[in-house]
Write a structure and sequence with these properties.
Elements lengths: L7 H18 L3 H35 L9 H25 L5 E5 L7 E2 L5 E2 L7 E5 H9 L5
Antiparallel strand pairs: 1-4, 2-3
Helix pairs in contact: 1-2, 2-3
Length: 149
């Protein structure tokens, strides 16, 4: 995501307000079109950045590398709230997957060759899309590496 100054949108809103004041005193069709164009540009830019912030928050939660650097003040507030919500959701999802036996049901996100787990037992090989049951400790390890869902 392209980094912007914290007051990026505020500055553009101020420019827009100045243009609106100017057109109120001296109307011109060119200036009216420029104002309309600027409004649409700002709206489109906000929407594009919103999508990027949503995906950034999700990626950052999964990788545990939280950073709101390069976001505007308002975007940082949104980002921080998304991080909180996603983290809370992921904790609940993992808790729901756990069974009392310490086994977790999971879906393989990318193929995994045969390996020896922490418990000394052999697991795999697993293919992408396969549904498996794994000990909680191994499932947690694989989830952090984004190879199971």
């Amino acid at each position: 995501m392209q980094a912007v100054k914290e007051d990026f949108f505020t500055a553009y809103e101020q420019i827009l307000e100045e243009k609106k004041k100017n057109i109120a005193t001296k109307f011109s069709i060119e200036e009216a079109r420029a104002i309309d164009s600027l409004q649409r540009l700002i709206q489109d830019l906000r929407k594009q950045r919103l999508y990027k912030i949503l995906f950034k928050a999700l990626r950052d939660c999964e990788s545990s590398s939280i950073s709101g650097e390069g976001l505007t003040t308002q975007e940082k507030e949104l980002y921080n709230e998304l991080i909180r919500l996603i983290s809370e959701y992921l904790k609940v999802s993992v808790a729901e997957k756990k069974k009392s036996t310490g086994v977790v049901k999971a879906k393989i996100a990318s193929s995994i060759p045969e390996f020896v787990g922490f418990d000394g037992k052999t697991y795999g090989p697993f293919t992408e899309g396969e549904h498996v049951e794994l000990p909680e400790e191994i499932a947690s390890f694989l989830a952090k590496r984004n190879v199971i869902i």
